[in-house]
Design a protein that fits this description.
Three copies of one chain form a homotrimer.
Chain A (H helix, E strand, L loop, with lengths): L1 H34 L4 H16 L1 H14 L2 H24 L4 H32 L4 H14 L4
Helix pairs in contact in A: 1-2, 1-3, 1-4, 2-4, 3-4, 3-5, 4-5, 5-6
């Protein structure tokens, strides 16, 4: 029975694993910076970047899993990958200069908004199917697949 | 196959979405307060309130989803909504005066305790059904539905 | 239908409940230490230990649930219990002396690595079964059950 479930979530699990490895990478960076006591400013900057990433991590996980369960796992996992790339850019940019951090943060917001939209579409779709018997889920999945490609442009 | 799953969790997904939007609202408040550099105390207060809310956020999500999966989604989602209202009151109260923050915190504790109780009841019920063949799940659901209404009183 | 799902996750739910109770215990400790204003250092130490535990909490939850869903719940729940024991030792050690905190942290890392390995094995197994029709899941479960016992040794 579980293999049926795994078929619908394995992409989400892979993205979650990548995000966990990224968390471990961030934590290692903070730990290594904390051991070198010569520059206090760099440690504070890395620690703050890590804190910002960690604060939004449960939100990201919850939204990605909801979107993947409600509608389709492929675009949700794709958006999750883009979010992780944006987070990586944000973290690395934060380590260098503060001015580079803003675009990464804005990018993350857009991906999260897209995932929230996917959740809402999925739930509306479910309610429509249940109470009206109208089924346009295939159309919606095509649209979200196309929309997730649009996220790459800017 | 997924539509069967969605039928049992869509209320939980809606509550999760509302909580994510609330998180975004909190983050926006902190960001706006951080840009106005005139009063340091207000920023620290808002930042601390946001931190407290964020620290208990994964705990709340985990308990709500466990309670919804183990027993029934309706009372779990209802308790989640009450928790979010309590968090909103806590955050707004923290921005004003510190003395107002304590009731909100106590309220959140009670909702979490109720959700934990729901989890325990659900698991006990499952184990009883599995090993004894005794089924009183309908009774339990009625009781929890009634109990979730009692949370509104104080 | 949900009782089938609960049968595959109830151990994970129990471990999640224990971790939530542990979180409540940590929060109570921090709150009690914060009210006694005589020693500032002890409060900062407890607060820092609580923050470290909380930062890695969503990561732990995500990895444990993924491992439990992908492969088998029994070793995942067992590793989760070991992680909680390690966290308890870490927190109590942090309250005493700083030198005792490092082994607890290393122990937590090993458990997380084991859970990540379980996820990867589960996904590889699923992909192999799907595309090659080869099934060695029973062998894998035996190996992970044996491996989870090895975690107790050091």
């Amino acid at each position: 029975m579980l293999s049926i479930v795994v078929e619908h979530i394995f992409l989400l699990v892979i993205v979650t694993l990548i995000s966990v490895l990224q968390n471990a990478f961030f934590a290692t960076k903070v730990e290594r910076e904390g051991k070198e006591h010569n520059n206090k400013t760099a440690f504070e900057r890395v620690s703050c970047a890590n804190r910002n990433c960690m604060d939004s991590y449960p939100t990201f996980l919850a939204v990605m899993w909801c979107a993947g369960l409600c509608l389709n796992q492929a675009p949700a996992a794709f958006a999750g990958i883009i979010y992780l790339v944006a987070r990586q850019k944000y973290f690395v940019g934060y380590m260098g200069q503060t001015s580079q951090s803003t675009p990464g943060f804005l990018f993350g917001k857009r991906v999260l908004a897209f995932l929230i939209l996917m959740c809402i579409v999925g739930i509306f779709n479910f309610l429509l199917v249940r109470y009206l018997g109208n089924d346009y889920k295939d159309t919606m999945e095509t649209i979200t697949n196309a929309a997730s490609a649009l996220l790459l442009i800017p």
